[in-house]
Amino acid sequence: MAGTIPILLPLHIIQSQNATSVGLVMAVLSSGMLVSPLWGALVDRRRYHRQVFWLGLCLLAIGLVLLLFVSSLLLQILSALLLGIGSAAAATVANLFIVEFHPEPEWNAGLGSLQMHYGGGQVVGLIIAGLLHDFSSYGLLLAALFVVLALSLIHI
């Protein structure tokens, strides 16, 4: 998410829209991420950690695939909203997996490891985005495949 989408999404949108539309789509993407506290509250109250994480990844996959097949600004905005909401769900729950299921002395190591892997994924995503900048659809498809791979590893 953090490596490929912020680079490839605007490149993909500009192919069918104008710069104003790109700004709008990116604003909606970021706005979707503002639901993180809602995901955190739901998970804290209902203990739906795996389900919310899985749902977040599903929303990411749906948003990415939808982007590949739509040229309407409204549907591109919907896709960006799904990406933001899904990203917020997955990122929020990833942190909660550590602080709610491990003793406090293990938090620093667990959160450090999570951030290291997140940063590594971001670097790989940026490399992919750089290599596929002229082929944004292929880059978004590859990102969707990575999300589907992650989904296949989760047992809810």
What does this structure look like?
- This protein has seven helices and no strands.
- 81% of the residues lie in helices and 0% in strands.
- It is mostly helical.
- It has helices spanning 5-13, 19-32, 36-46, 49-69, 73-101, 107-131, 136-152.
- The longest helix has 29 residues, at 73-101.
The total of beta strands comes to 0
Unreliable stretches covering 5 or more consecutive residues: none
Biggest β-sheet description: none
User: End-to-end distance, in Å?
Assistant: 22 Å
Task: Tell me, rounded to a whole number, the average pLDDT.
Answer: 93
Which bin fits the share of residues in helices? over 70%
Content of β-strand: under 5%
Rg is 16 Å
Tally of alpha and pi helices: 7
Rough outline = globular
The string of secondary-structure elements, in order, is HHHHHHH
Question: What structural class results from the helix and strand content?
Answer: mainly alpha
Brief account:
The chain is an all-alpha fold. About 80% of the residues lie in helices and about 0% in strands.
Features:
156 residues; mainly alpha; globular
Topology:
Blueprint (H helix, E strand, L loop, with lengths): L4 H9 L5 H14 L3 H11 L2 H21 L3 H29 L5 H25 L4 H17 L4
Helix pairs in contact: 1-2, 1-7, 2-5, 3-5, 4-5, 4-7, 5-6
